[in-house]
Amino acid sequence: MVARMRHVSDQTKTLATLDQRIQDSQHLADVYNSWATLVVETRRRAALHQLLQSLSMVFAILLAVLLIVKAIHHAFGQQADRKRRHQLQVIGSIAVQVVGGLLILFVIVGPPTQISTIIGLTTAGLTVVMKDFIVAFFGWFALMGKNGVRVGDWVEINGVSGEVIEIGMLKTVLLEMGNWTSTGHPTGRRVAVMNSYAIEGHYFNFSTAGQWLWDELQVTLASTGDPYHTSQEIRQTVERETAADAAEAEQEWERVTRQYGTRTFSAKPAVDLRPSPNGLTVIVRYITRAPQRYEVRSRLFTAIVELLHKPAGSA
């Protein structure tokens, strides 16, 4: 009986201990439930606060972009040139909007974690997209060199001939000239060419400051009379009219040939007599300045016409 009573007593104590554990577990479960509810509420409030903060930052960025764009329009509004003013306003507005869009993207997505990878991909993309601008920028350095072009030079770039009126970091602006074989007068059009031609293409430029070139005119002579004597008179007339230009051209070419070690040139007119269906044709080649080509040709034609209409045997 004593042993049995002890056994019953041990079981009673065990049951009491189990009841206490059950009560503790229930109390702990209640605490956990209240704590989870509190954590969820805290996180919900933090997320809402972060959302409101992000929205406020986005609205602040948008407001700042609008104010800066208005300030840019007001700042460049005093520009006299309307086209230039519009370009500056558009470029400034686009730049500010792009920066604002990047800031809003950072606010929404967050700052990037892999900075090096993003920088590498961005650099590669910009290099591919802005390849023409990069080549044009380095072409500007090539044009600034010894064998480049200067404002006032007569050049031919990509088949366009004209006088250089502006050399920018990305573009070269030409005042287009007409057909050089006829008049060479300006057409009134400005042609902008990317400076990449200095690296990827080719261009033609006068090698001397005087802008000398060889011009040619043709005169048809009648089959009667002495064509050789007439051609010599034409040559003498051309030499007389172009003597000053020929002497100056020889001096400039002499400096160029001495610098590069090439042979010297002669700027004297050359006359060639060729047969033609209507008689004989006199071809005269002479030196002249490119801007004065039409004037010199008109003066020579006037002198040759007077020579041809001069009575035979007169001085």
Structural account:
The chain has 315 residues and is of the alpha+beta class. It folds into 3 domains: 1-111; 135-205, SH3 type barrels; 212-308, Alpha-Beta Plaits. Helices cover 58% and strands 19% of the residues. A 5-stranded antiparallel β-sheet has the order 4-3-2-1-5. Strands 6-8-7 form a 3-stranded antiparallel β-sheet. The longest helix has 74 residues, at 2-75. The mean pLDDT is 77.
Main sheet makeup: 5 strands, antiparallel
Tally of domains: 3
Strand residues, percent? 15-25%
SS-based class:
alpha+beta
SSE series? HHHHEEEEHEEHHEEH
**Going across the major beta sheet, what is the strand order?**
4-3-2-1-5
Beta strand count: 8
The tally of helices reads: 8
**Fraction of residues in helix:** 55-70%
Low-pLDDT windows of residues: none
Shape: rod-shaped
Distance between the termini: 172 Å
Question: What's the Cα radius of gyration?
Answer: 44 Å
Overall pLDDT score: 77
List the helices and strands and how they pair.
Elements: H1 2-75, H2 82-109, H3 115-129, H4 131-143, E1 154-157, E2 160-167, E3 171-177, E4 186-194, H5 197-200, E5 203-205, E6 212-221, H6 227-241, H7 243-260, E7 270-276, E8 279-289, H8 293-308
Helix pairs in contact: 1-2, 6-8
Which key features would you list for this structure?
alpha+beta, 3-stranded antiparallel beta sheet, 19% strand, Alpha-Beta Plaits, single chain, SH3 type barrels, 315 residues
